[in-house]
Amino acid sequence: MIINQLLPIGLFIAIPSFKAEDVLQLLGISGATIAFGFRDILENWLAGILIVFDRTCRRIQTRDSSREPAQI
Fold it and tell me: Rounded to whole angstroms, how far apart are CA atoms 40 and 70?
């Protein structure tokens, strides 16, 4: 279609205008963006693990407290 015809023309115009500084700057900005996004993902994942651990511990404590004390 028309995109297949315009894409090589656009790349031919854009690629020679890139400089090494532009590529490094783009990589730096992209790296910072990915790092901030990954930080949020890790925080949510860790919070989920702590919630599961907390609920499991509460369940274990509830089961132990419902038992009758052992007779001596």
Answer: 48
